[in-house]
Amino acid sequence: MRRLWLVFTQAVTISVAVLFVVSTLKPEWLRSAAPASVVAIFEAPGNGQAAEAPHAPGSYAPAAQRSMPAVVHIFTSKEVGAQRHPLFDDPIFRHFFGDRQDNAPRQRSAGLGSGVIVSPDGFVLTNNHVIEAADEIEVALNDGRKFPARLVGRDPETDLAVLKLETDAQFPVITFAQPDNLQVGDVVLAIGNPFGVGQTVTMGIISALGRTQLGINTFENYIQTDAAINPGNSGGALVDAQGNLVGINTAIYSRSGGSLGIGFAIPVSLARSVLEQIVTNGEVTRGWVGVEIQEITPELADSFGLGETSGALIAGVLRGSPAERAGIRPGDILVGVDGRGVRDTKSMLEMVAALPPGNVATFSIRRAETELELRVEVGRRPTPQNVLQRPR
Fold first, then answer.
1. Cα Rg of the chain (Å, integer)
2. Which amino acid positions bind substrate, per UniProt (predicted)?
3. What CATH topology corresponds to 179-281?
4. Which of 172, 230, 257, 329 is deepest in the core (most CB within 10 A)?
């Protein structure tokens, strides 16, 4: 028995010694047999790249990845004078203290917004109110690069402007969607730089099409969406579920300054027309005849003895305008332009604006019980002097 005990104790001693030596010199031999974790953790591949797999159903990552590189941040600044104290308007005060306030250092105010690169050579489409009155414009790309930009042209009546990046580099561009394919209920993504926090993507649907009479711009044909649009998103992209541009985010309805789920975007068809004219001519040229128009309500239709409310009531005619020279009078009802029917004031404004200045157009007029065809030599629409205030 004693012999067996000695053999056992020697075996245990040798085993402990071997375990000590292995744990000291080759600890990996012991760890290789141990479980890595008691929790089943799925890890990314060791090369640091995500595993290639199809996107989950309902994910809009492909659309965002396709369009985000072409959406830029726009930083503007302008010089403003220091506030003048009222006492410096007093001649006696100025006599004793001079014009020191006139030599006060001028300050700079900063603004921000978004834009969309629409051509590889660096043309950027944005809102006019983003760059209005700015004397310095800088554009930051999604990849961190920054470039100065110059103003190519702007159109206050649609709140659009075109910039050109001051570099010879080539840029990622966005793809324009087919305007006729957009429908109420389609999913859209709004991409921009809200509140200056950085590029952000929000998702919603098309709530309505053809929104007008909002008092934001002269020419209105807005896409309404509930995708969150906030200050700083102005000029950014509204894209469809494939990442194609369907509109330029421009305004929100809000009582607090933040998104309430009612945002408006300029449709891509209008944005493209303005873009092409500005790049070609530096400005947008529209037709003009010099009339003030009014919507025909059911009450007005009854008073004029009309069976319907289609057409546009001529409420006033400017002196010396093409309309006055052609014989158009206040109280006339415009029902057609060059053979196309006028449904309302919006369609009349768009038809006249689309006429080339210098051309002669036929206006179909209803005056009392008489139908008249008057030939009007179209003039050029004057540049607006006052730009309407709009939510950013």
1. 34
2. 129, 159, 232-234
3. Thrombin, subunit H (2.40.10)
4. 230
Tell me the backbone φ, ψ of residue 157, rounded to 5 degrees.
-75, -15
Which residue, 72, 52, 176, 54, is CA-closest to 116? 72
Report the alpha-carbon distance of residue 135 to residue 106 in Å, rounded. 14
Q: Which residues are annotated as a binding site for substrate?
A: 129, 159, 232-234
Burial of residue 172, with CB atoms counted within 10 A of its CB: 0-12 exposed, 13-18 middle, 19 or more buried: middle
Per-residue pLDDT reduced to its tens digit, 18-74: 666 556 555 555 554 445 544 333 333 444 444 444 566 678 899 999 999 999 999
For residues 130 and 111, the answer to whether their CB atoms sit within 8 Å is: yes
Residues contributing to the annotated binding site? 129, 159, 232-234
Task: Give the count of beta carbons closer than 10 Å to the beta carbon of residue 336.
Answer: 18
Distance (Å, whole) CA 249 – CA 251: 6
Measured distance CA(86)–CA(372) in Å, rounded? 60
Task: Give the residue, 236 or 300, on which the prediction is more confident.
Answer: 236
pLDDT tens-digit series, residues 270-292 = 999 899 999 988 888 899 999 98
Find the mean pLDDT for residues 344-365. 87
Q: Return the pLDDT at 116.
A: 94
Domain 287-380 is found in CATH 3.40.50.720: no
Report phi then psi at 353, rounded to 5: -65, -30
Q: How far is CA 315 from CA 220, 292, 354, 371, in A?
A: 21, 5, 21, 18
What does the H/E/C string look like for 107-156? EEEEEEEEEEECCCCCEEEEEHHHHCCCCEEEEECCCCCEEEEEEEEEEC
Sort 233 into a burial class: Cβ within 10 Å, 0-12 / 13-18 / 19+: buried
Q: Report pLDDT for 224.
A: 94
Which residues does 7 contact at the CB level (< 8 Å), separation at least 6?
none
**In CATH, which superfamily holds the domain spanning 65-165?**
Trypsin-like serine proteases (2.40.10.10)
The domain locations on the chain are 65-165, 179-281, 287-380
Nearest to 223, CA basis, from 232, 212, 233: 212
Half-sphere exposure of 24 (CA within 13 A, CB side): 6
Please tell me if the domain spanning 65-165 has the same topology as the one spanning 287-380: no
pTM of the model: 0.71
Cβ–Cβ under 8 Å, residues 115 and 152: no
- Give the lowest-confidence range in 108-112, 216-220, 249-253: 108-112
